[in-house]
Write a structure and sequence with these properties.
single chain, alpha/beta, Rossmann fold, Arc Repressor Mutant, subunit A, 2 domains, two-stranded antiparallel sheet
């Protein structure tokens, strides 16, 4: 039986080393590469492949949510598990909408990543226990986590703008035309009483969606 080939993408070597050791305790699982940046991942994907990719959303040179969409546009069969500090329902919803098959936070017990990869092997979508609780709470409240004022699409646009993307980049990332993206931004400004993308990023920081430099 062929080994399950796993790639770990995280900019902290000690994190990768710890998870590599954990994952390789599973019979037939092999971590075939450790990658620390978006650029290195792009180069690796040009000349190799894997069965499961464990992806951090916060890399020093790339936005994980954008990378997720790009990777799956190129290789739709690739199983991606998000492993991140972000536990907000908005991040989870966006990652799943982009095609992630698992979502685990770094505050979870390490075994949850093992559980996620096992679930993917059974054809399931896996959410870590803390993520399930957070998403369930947001759904029960009838909102979109920290952005209850917005529709699901507006919240998606808000998050990408807050992470520093231009309107044109937002449109390309989520597959809408620029005119529609500008319309969403206008609606966001009106609903949240914002006057600029700078104010939008400040609001996102206050609501815990992004960390400003």
């Amino acid at each position: 039986m062929s080994p399950l080939r796993i790639v770990l993408v995280d900019d902290h070597p000690i994190v990768r080393a710890g998870f590599k050791q954990l994952l390789e305790l599973e019979p037939g699982w092999q971590v075939i590469a450790e990658v620390g940046s978006a650029q290195a991942l792009a180069a690796w994907m040009l000349q190799a492949t894997c069965d499961v990719l464990v992806l951090d959303l916060s890399l020093p040179d790339g936005d994980g949510l954008v990378m997720l969409r790009h990777l799956l546009a190129q290789r739709p069969e690739l199983a991606i598990v998000v492993l991140t500090m972000h536990d907000g329902a908005l991040y989870v919803q966006d990652a799943l909408a982009a095609g992630a098959r698992g979502y685990v936070t770094k505050r979870s017990a390490p075994d949850e990543l093992v559980d996620a990869i096992r679930a993917i092997g059974r054809g399931e979508i896996y959410l870590g226990s803390d993520v399930r609780n957070h998403v369930a709470g947001a759904s029960a409240a009838g909102g979109h986590d920290q952005l209850p004022e917005l529709t699901a699409r507006e919240a998606q646009v808000f998050l990408l703008l807050a992470r520093g993307h231009s309107v044109a980049r937002v449109a390309a990332t989520i597959g809408i035309n620029a005119k529609t993206a500008y319309a969403h931004r206008t609606n966001i400004y009106a609903k949240l009483k914002l006057g600029s993308d700078h104010e939008l990023r400040l609001l996102a920081s206050r609501r815990g969606l992004v960390a400003l430099d």
